[in-house]
Every structure is written in structure tokens, then in C-alpha cells.
Design brief:
- By secondary structure, the protein is an alpha+beta fold.
- It has a single domain, classed as Alpha-Beta Plaits, CATH 3.30.70.2330.
- A six-stranded antiparallel sheet has the order 1-6-5-2-3-4.
- About 20% of the residues have low confidence.
Amino acid sequence: MNQHQMIALISNPLVVVGAQAVCPEDGNSAISQLSRIPILDTYIAGTQYYEGIDHITSICIDDYVELVHQSLNKHDPYAIAIYWKTIHLGFIPKPHNIDIAKLLMVDLSVYGSITRVQKSDKNAFAIRVVLEK
């Protein structure tokens, strides 16, 4: 089963019903590994245009990031913005955002966690996108 088939299967609201993910104040997740399905590992696009770089020393590996579907985005109706706390870090890269947008549109619990922080790269952050069962 490829990634698109898996996402189609789990995004059916009759199969999986999710709630919004909750992030503890310190950014560490207490959610059981068994309840999380990793669906994408990628970099965060556009970090050079947003304020995340100014906070790079505060952002840690495994920090929770919120994924927000921006259906009214004038450049891409499937745009998925990525926020750490209230700080806009960038976007899910366009080749991957349609599937994630579809999961968010059916109110499944999808969130991200930081997997890499690198000061010397324009793609300073990498994330893992996770579906919570």
C-alpha cells in the first residue's frame, strides 16, 4: 500500500474518528507511540520568510507544531501552515500538502513534531507529520 492509498483509507471518517491534538506546555508529547501513525517526514518550506529563524535557539527536537490548512491562501488552496506556539515557521512543501489538507478537512487529528533544527540551512527545520488515532 502506498502513501496515497494509506491516507485515503485512514481519512475516511467512518474508519477513523479523531479529536484535536493537545500539546503540553513544554512541547513534549505524552501520547502513546501506539496511537500515532507517522505519515510524512519533510522539511519546512519557506522558513526564510517567517519569524521561526529568530527563535531557532528555543525550538527543540520533538517540539509539537500545529498544522493549519489555509484554504483561502491565494497561492495554493491546499497550503498547510506550520506553527510552533504562535510563531509561523513556514509550510508543508507543496508536493505533499494535498493529502495532509484532506486529512485536516475531515477533522482528523494531524500534527507535526520537529525532527531537525539546523542553523546553517535555509531549510532550517524538518518535521514528522503524524496522524493520531
